[in-house]
């Protein structure tokens, strides 16, 4: 077997130089490229514009921390149990970034993309987007499926992140077809569903990331990146004002042993 | 038992508002706070200055990706084996962020901090720093211990990240005692060790993070945050130009079965 | 809000007693219940018969270790990088237990279950099973889908685990409908596919676990339990005869930097 | 560079054969080797005796599940948040297997081993063990350190697992120096500490594993193996009688936003 060679455009080192994405790391990246900008660049191998960076960082801010979510609780409890391993506490928290809690961002981005991909020529005005959105909502209704990004268990009258992210994207000239379709769904769905649901923040983030041209397979990854910063915040707070042991005891002291319930398939 | 209450200054929501760190998330954070800045703020609950943010982001850039490290290989192999779970591939990679590969940043920051904490009044000029550094290097030599942050297996004649980070910190007026001591160690160690070793990038990053006043217990966490962005880059590249299966086969096809070697304590 | 109560039939403690699954742990479990038997009991809340335990442990043996799989490599590399955290090395390896490498066991068990659930009255003789299998293989062929558990990249002429597990199940009177259908697929598929593929070990394990009445949602979990034992074996070998660093260097020294390849959606 | 070769005595495959630990997997392992026995064999590359297997499996039973521990809560919350990834839920739970909750087993085994290694000739009767134990307890007292394995927050008058495991080890003729020293510590510590503390179950498990000749570096690994079976039990119960969402809500609904508390080093 020939010895394999592994190509990469990411980090590389020689005796006196380190490159990252083809750049001189020390001179052209450090001190010159912000962390959000660099994260975008690493994921796409192209440097984002300042406007793209601003929208991207607004998305990361929107997803960084939502208080005592399962992922935050998990990171705190894992730190309580294994304080010797910060990496374990962060990794455990990220493992909750799956289909239910952090997945909406990716689900919404992918869903909008599929609709757009099968739509042929894209609309050029609001009326056109409304027509496409109406068709989309009706199809989902008929299939008895939820629309990713629609509805929120707390922000029932509107998620404040949604108009704000649309505003930022508009300021930067970055409202593309995903955001346009998502917005139109927000306008037309009451006609079909008979009630008005909010466009939620996780969903609008997915639409914005898709409009930025980020890989759809990794939209969940950006939610996880944002959450990593949030989980470090949770750990920092836990170190100084711990609640992990109280959470553990509140569960353990309220346990009630019951008889086994034999499983049958 | 009284019902417990869990206090947090991080994310919180009500019907029509979301706060983060006491700020209105939509209006005062999204579109106004960069991702590096926000990460710093989450970890310290205080907003960094632009200079602090610049140094912090330079550190994150320095640590984001170092090519085919064990963590990068692990993320690619985990994705190969379980492509259904991006969060699992990222978490697996982060779990390699332990004492050997990503730990130097934290080890160096903590080490410098301990020396400073036990040093009494801090030096006020280079001669003073050199004297403290000399004493420190001699003590480590006597204890036959390595000095965290000194030496590099590739950049034997100098790690290009080190002078660059010092330069950025100097530009921002953020060269504090940790960087001062680290730099002095770089000047004086040849007198004691009889050879000149480079101050490595991971070490200078730890010194800079400590000078920024970030929690020492979480210095490894910032290396992991940087690496999360890098691992997303690795996954993005793996999706388009995969090498994971080649790596797996290069190992598996070169396996050689041997007889068991019974363990005795 | 009323204080919640959390019910469990698993472990519980009081001042002088520990129960597990309603048993006195010290007197009725320790020294009397093997580890395979206990694992089955924990998952189903019913104690398996000796025959069920034997089939279950045969499955665990079949899945415990397959040499230098991605999961094994990942555990060794994570230990190399973070030797301070055994739990991190094991967790990282398990994260590779996803759809591609360890998933066949679950996929096959679920697939067979779905066919059986929609088949109405089950066959009572080989001819009947062959007819159901033929219908099943034809339907998959028509849908251009693979049949889980059919085919193996190494054991092209037959996976030695398959006849052995069937033999053990037959000895214990535990060949149920999943194994019957799987065996019949092995007999009839050449008629449809025009070539003979082996019934693989991961697949027959899934069929056997399903016949044992274990929860289908957790079939992957049993593969992960078996693999945990295997990964501890990998770590034990790595501690004494390390190869992790050689694997890392074989990749890192064969890296070739290339220019970035900007992503477009 | 010469192509590297990776040696292993664990799993290996050829066209028509699979070996594990030098055995024919299908014919000599499946159906003949229990799961506890195999786990021991994988870790030591030697087959345990039936007596060793019984003690080992008693240890695994003692450590498998302790109800709503942080690891169990973490697995349930991770499943709640990411039900698409069983491997993620298990891995997250295992990441809590660190120094505080599951670490006592390893800490105790290592501690006893160090005492024995520095003790010279080992005692041959109870009086001799008591003398060594007294010296050991006094040294720890003087150093103001805890003795691993001594004390329990619930079983203040004695942990029922401890006498039972000693009984099983005695029945199998497997009370070695680690258990002898641990028992002696139980007898003599009140003389030094002025109060009687129980020898806890995690500690006696560590002593027993060390007496079995298992690698000290991996004692935590066996606790994790046991816990993997327990966590599968937790997931199986969560699937049928979920409490994860109640736990999450009990925390989230009791959150109280507070003002940021800026960190100073």
UniProtKB/TrEMBL annotation, chains A, B, C, D:
EC code(s) of this entry: 2.3.3.16
EC main group: transferase
Keyword Cell inner membrane applies: no
Keyword Glycoprotein tagged: no
Record InterPro entries: Citrate_synth-like_lrg_a-sub, Citrate_synth-like_sm_a-sub, Citrate_synthase, Citrate_synthase_sf
UniProt entry keywords in alphabetical sequence: Lyase, Transferase
GO cellular component: cytosol
Matching CDD domains: CCL_ACL-C
One Pfam family in the UniProt entry: Citrate_synt
Pathway assigned to this chain's UniProt record: Carbohydrate metabolism; tricarboxylic acid cycle
GO molecular function, one term: citrate synthase activity
GO biological process: carbohydrate metabolic process; tricarboxylic acid cycle
UniProt xrefs under NCBIfam families: PRK06224.1-5 (NF004868)
Entry's family note: Belongs to the citrate synthase family.
Protein name: citrate synthase (unknown stereospecificity)
Organism of this sequence: Amycolatopsis carbonis
């Amino acid at each position: 077997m020939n010895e394999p060679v592994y190509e990469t455009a990411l980090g590389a080192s020689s005796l006196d130089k380190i490159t990252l994405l083809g750049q001189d790391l020390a001179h052209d990246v450090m001190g010159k490229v912000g962390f959000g900008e660099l994260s975008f660049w690493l994921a796409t191998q192209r440097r984002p514009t300042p406007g793209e960076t601003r929208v991207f960082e607004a998305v990361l801010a929107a997803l960084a921390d939502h208080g005592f979510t399962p992922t935050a609780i998990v990171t705190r409890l894992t730190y309580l149990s294994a304080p010797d391993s910060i990496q374990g506490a962060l990794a455990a928290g990220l493992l909750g970034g799956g289909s239910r809690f952090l997945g909406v961002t990716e689900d919404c981005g992918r869903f909008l993309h599929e609709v757009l991909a099968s739509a042929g020529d894209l609309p050029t005005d609001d009326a056109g987007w409304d027509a496409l959105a109406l068709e989309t909502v009706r199809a989902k209704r008929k299939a008895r499926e939820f629309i990713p990004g629609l509805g929120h268990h707390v922000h029932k009258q509107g998620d404040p992140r949604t108009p704000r992210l649309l505003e930022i994207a508009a300021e930067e000239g970055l409202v593309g077809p995903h955001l346009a379709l998502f917005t139109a769904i927000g306008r037309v769905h009451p006609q079909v569903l008979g009630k008005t649901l909010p466009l939620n923040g996780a969903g609008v983030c997915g639409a914005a990331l898709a409009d930025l041209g980020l890989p759809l397979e990794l939209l969940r990854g950006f939610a996880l990146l944002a959450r990593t910063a949030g989980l470090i915040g949770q750990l920092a707070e836990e170190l100084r004002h711990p609640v992990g042991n109280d959470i553990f005891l509140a569960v353990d002291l309220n346990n009630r042993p019951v008889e086994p319930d034999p499983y049958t398939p």
